[in-house]
Amino acid sequence: MLEILKxxxxxxxxxxxxxxxxxxxxxxxxxxxxxxxxxxxxxxxPKFHDDKNNEVEKRFWGKIKVKAASAHAQFIKDGLLQKxxxxxxxxxxxxVGEELGKELGYELKNSARFKDVDLVLPVPLHKxxxxxxxxxxxxFIAKGVAEAMEIEWSVRHIRRNVYNISxxxxxxxxxxxxxxxxFEAYGDxxxxxxxxxxxxxxxxxxxxxxxxxxxxxxxxxxxxxxASVAYA
Length: 232
Fold this sequence. Notes:
Blueprint: H1 2-16, H2 37-42, H3 55-58, E1 68-74, H4 80-90, H5 94-109, E2 119-122, H6 127-133, H7 137-149, E3 152-153, E4 158-160, H8 172-178, E5 183-185, E6 195-203, H9 207-216, E7 223-231
Parallel strand pairs: 1-7, 2-3, 2-6, 6-7
Antiparallel strand pairs: 4-5
Helix pairs in contact: 4-5, 5-7, 8-9
């Protein structure tokens, strides 16, 4: 009886405050959380997780040491995925992060290239930027990835020590110069020998990821993997 009343109350609440898809703004059904099935189906997903020569991984060739790199879907300007990521980053719709993280995580879990991963870390924000925004969107993506892969995740062990200006609109070289030596790995040996998956929301030039990986590659015996919800 209590469960019936709870369901009825939620249905009544959603009648006046409908839940809408973060991508298309249409109403969600009871089985959908933040993004409708139609939008998920229409994201352009290249299946990079099983392709060692994928476009994302190629961006890091000759630059940093990574075991494997992947992205869940292509970031298209004014597209459905861009709208969902905007909701996550600027509208506090953190459920979007968890849901997209799970979609990414399920792909990686079924990939032989990522089978050894045992720890998920989100790309960190500087504490000032995190305080302004109220949260780090990558934390929620990492949580979703880890839940799907059934492995450990943490918001610790890598920090951003330098607060610099936004990457938006910068050239490839400008992004690189803006991210040199800004991250530091820490953790009293907790990262030693781990297979670490570094998770981001969108990979563009890869400059931020490169800076993060350079910090993590200083950890004794660690192997680094990279994945993002989107690539542009």
